[in-house]
From TrEMBL:
Domain called M23ase beta-sheet core: residue spans: 77-149
Lineage: superkingdom: Bacteria
Signal peptide: none
CDD domains: M23_peptidase
An MF annotation (GO) of this entry: metalloendopeptidase activity
Protein name, per record: M23 family metallopeptidase
Classification lineage: Bacteria, Pseudomonadati, Pseudomonadota, Gammaproteobacteria, Moraxellales
Amino acid sequence: MFEIQFPPIITSVILKNRYKTIACAVLAMFSTHTFSADPLPNRPAFKLPFPCGAQIELKTYQGHGPDDKKIDMYRMGMFTGSPITASADGLVHQAFYPGGIEIRHGNGWFTTYMHMSSHVPVGSNVKQGDVVGYMGDVGSPGIPHLHYEQLYAPGLNDAGSQHIVNPVLQGEWLYMVPNSPLVRTSANCPNTTPPPPPTGNKYWVDTWGDANGRSSPGGTVTGTLYKGTSYVYCKVWGPKVQNATGAQWNHWWLKTDLDVGPTNQWVSAFMLSRWGNDQAKDNNGVVIPNCP
């Protein structure tokens, strides 16, 4: 006589026939579960570490160690260069190879982000949704993706691989299975009242940081467009703006009215938080038209 044990979340599957019980429990392991009570205490309300509305494919593979807990994330429609955002508020307390950081969220909770081409420095205090880096292929040549983990180490200021737990993202408990990818939409959205629909020739966009406004594309600095949601009118091709490593760039410049400074100025589309290299779209994915 032997006893089969399943994860606690699976034991809620109960049928009178013991063979059906086992079959249903095994099938449940290949799915996700939404619950009202988290099996672990004080877990932050973690969200997918990508900008609001991004479509993300979640995968694992045999030998991922542990296969069911570690997630490789791929942004659909954006092969590389996607902004990576904090799953929850916290402190970046560690950086490591390959292209990784760990964020300490308090109450024993941590998240790990790896394979980024660049990232914020250790000591950065971040809010949920803040950009903490950019998806790349550091340590995984030719396979840009984000490796993501949730860790629980109560009473400790650091977490190791022994502390990895099954993730909960956007209220959904995930038990990852090799060759069974999931697709989810990021709800890592600004916690603010959305702006009214654009009128006329205005297009709403999100920027990941304060942007210099310029008199012409690449011209003299005339003011500032604050981080957040703003409108733009149109775009023109201009001088290339890129990050320190050259992994992210954009040639498009957007005409807008600055928060500090005059109207009808220019900011680089490099500052857009939702799109990649040489893309200039609004928050709905509409390509911003060329300026007349």
